[in-house]
Amino acid sequence: MILERLVVGMLQTNCYLLCDEETRQGVVIDPGGEASRIIGRLQELDVTLVAILNTHGHFDHVLDAWALKEALGGLIFLHPKDEPLLMDHKVGLGAVFTAATGSSHGKVDEWLEEGAELSFGNLRLKVLETPGHTPGHVAFHLPEAKVLFVGDTLFAGSIGRTDFPGGSYTKLIQSVKDKIFPMDDATRVLPGHGPETTVGIEKRTNPFF
């Protein structure tokens, strides 16, 4: 597989490109800005974009999802509980877009849910509901490769904020304990911001646990 991280946008979001090397089918996770750069890299890799996956609805993770779809195709995925956040004027697209924004912004093609499996090429991503940072936050697990895309639920040595609309500290802590920490210690944790870590490191050293 091909797995690359691009740090994009005003809040330095980790956007991930994940591609099956054999079929060249791929997905983009959390395209929070700099669509032209993401598009250019996908074209360099000769990747067919089949899906745009969003861990949650904050603008710094979904901002350029629709630009990618317009340029390269692919379905936009989000959990339904985060749909109200898309146009929120503090954390959603409403914070950065005006009424002049095209009507396609904010339209989601497919809804995510716990246990769903997303297949492209020879790769399978499993959806885990991890609420707390937002009501509909999800993580994407690639079990065979021991890779977990956690969005803003867990960071190296920290956790995501819970003081935004719909946030819950209690739910976030429970999400990490129930969904992430039971995984193999060697599982790579790829967060929405900052450096990657592992399940084992966070279990042993994260001060919130």
UniProtKB/TrEMBL annotation:
In its keyword annotation, does this UniProt entry include Hydrolase? yes
Record SMART domains? Lactamase_B (SM00849)
Residues of the Metallo-beta-lactamase domain: 12-193
Show the GO MF annotations. Answer: hydrolase activity; metal ion binding
Q: Spell out the coiled coil positions from the record.
A: none
The keyword Cytoplasm is assigned to this record: no
Please list the cofactors this protein needs.
Zn(2+)
Pfam name, any one: Lactamase_B
Q: Provide this UniProt record's keywords sorted from A to Z.
A: Hydrolase, Metal-binding, Zinc
User: What Gene3D superfamilies does UniProt report for this protein, alphabetically?
Assistant: Ribonuclease Z/Hydroxyacylglutathione hydrolase-like
Q: What is this protein called?
A: Glyoxylase-like metal-dependent hydrolase (Beta-lactamase superfamily II)
| Species the sequence originates in | Desulfosoma caldarium
